[in-house]
Design goal:
mainly alpha; two-stranded antiparallel ribbon; two-stranded antiparallel sheet; 29 helices; 4 strands; 69% helix
Length: 556
Amino acid sequence: MMIVEEAIPANLTGSRALQQYIFSILQTCNTIKKLKQIHTQIVINGFSNKNYLIVKLLSFYITSGNLLSAHKVFDRVENPSTSVWNQMIRGHSQGEAPQKLIELYNRMVEDGAEAEPNRFTYSFVIGGCARSRLLREGEQMHGRVVANGYYTNVFVQTNLVNLYVAGGGDDGVRKARRVFDEMIDRNVVSWNSLLAGYVRCGDLDGARRVFDEMPERNVVSWTTMIAGCAQNGRCKQSLNLFHEMRRASIELDQVVLVAALSACAELGDLKVGKWIHTYIEEKLNAGNQPLLVSLNNSLIHMYSSCGVIDKAYEIFMGMQRRSIVSWTSMITGFAKQGYAEEALEVFQWMQCLGTDDGRPDGITLLGVLCACSHAGFVYQGRQFFKCMNQNWGIVPRIEHYGCMVDLLSRAGFLDEAHILVESMPMRPNDAVWGALLGGCRIHKNDELASHVAQKLILELEPDRAAGYLVLLSNVYATAKRWQDVALVREKMVKMGVRKPVGRSWVQINGVVHDFVVGDWTHKHASSIYEMLSKITRQAKLEGYKLEISEVLLDVE
């Protein structure tokens, strides 16, 4: 029999020498085929109970994802050592059957042989409980760790932090913090685990305090903070951290670039987004580093959000592999920028693929309906909405209903939109009623608007009702129902609500400038209002007529 394309040397007559030879080729083994050849020799030569060989064999099988083969090896061992048990426990800590992990641990304890759990055992078991969110079993392991004297081990304690973080919520973070505070030795992984816990429960201020206290930060630390801020609406802070990371000369990996691009998309920060794109081309592409599909998706989203739809499409077309997110991002990008026909063409192309990546999901259909709404494609929108469940097995959510109501309302099919709202299988939210109310304003249907507004006022908190009350007032003003306009205004005063302040922003020379209606605190306020006045005068000269009804409630 050949092993690794070589015969066993003839001079290996002793059992010990043969074991050492097999161990040495196990060390250099790099394929499953060779591993199985070595495995065969271990069985043939009667070494199935040599624990140090079995540990190596199991390690390779488990690392290669061959847990079933590892089990076959393990079941032949008469007296597994602690290291052998640990390999199997490690395999199941990363597997898809987490309860098997607990069963193995219990078998090890109940076996009564010489093998006893050690710090690696507990680290693997608790780590597996954290990954699988087996909080109750993990807490039991916490008790055993303390009882057996392994609580001060940094790896065990770090996995306990992970366990309680995985439990979620403020209570989970409190427990994780308690374990962390009791740690004598901490490493950057321990700090990152606690940091991730604060981010996961949305406590960005707490996360920032942990981040500032860290004696050492790595790329994971920075990525956790940058992504956390971006995902929790603190996009300016996210990009500030990204710039700090660059100044700290931390190498930028693809995951942190995805997070930063997400923040750029939300802020419309095209300058930073372009810088990241250039970095990708010069550092990653030039080094022949394969790009994550998610990184290309983020570039598409960023360019689409910043209005540079041609660049987004160029990236989309250049992708060697596209995920469902790629298709959805491109469709949604076209839809939001008013390119409805292009969005529907991409959707048609997507369906022709016949693969899982070409099968639309609920978010894809939301982008398609959005495209139909913006372009007034009523017939196509009706067909897509009707076929969602029938063709793709997608049950319409409230967002799909809202998009359909918006499409019908904009196009003037107010009765059909109203019937759709009343027939929804879930309770309509303010966005759905608001879409119908917006259609009433466009098509001057003050009676239906009054009915819709009553529904909204009864269901919404005062602060959220303000914008819709303003919209209702504008509908009344268009219909010259001045008494009703006055009643709406009086109701707003009684409710103690005001129309949400108008806000806009623009990026000039890489700086994002924020503008608020009636704000004189900007250092260039005089110049800004002077320019607005010139624009208004020019608009009047070109025949633009100011819609007075839209500003009635802005006047004090």
